[in-house]
Amino acid sequence: MNYVKANSRTIKMKLSKIDLSNIVAINHSQDKLGLLIDRGSEVEYLEIPAPRAAYQGLNQVANLANKISPLATPTLSDALNIPNQPKSVSYGASIEVDQLKKVVRVELSCELVYSLEESGDFEEEYDDFEDFDEDFHCEEQDY
Fold this sequence. Notes:
three-stranded antiparallel β-sheet; 3 helices; 9 strands; disordered C terminus
């Protein structure tokens, strides 16, 4: 048992250490939780049956861990309104935000490039990206 001090009172609870550092990204569609996992030499996309609440809970945990309001729900519009900051991640070569064209462009280290535009067909475009990812494996290459 571990003892956790919260708001000047001590709570007794069992805690389990977890490591989610290899989970690159998540999504939820048709009662399935999509996971983009960094396997070291490749990036793998998996789907597991899960309610939407699992997706929302993981987002809240990530927000808490990164000191973001747990109720924040970022959208593409939100991303386009923030300054472009360099990202330091093992799976991506670059993430670029074009505020004028309202486009988010992701280039993975295996040279796969994907652009997501904010438009009336955003959901359809995202579904196309999701379908593309079903059998996607990104092999690491020597440069």
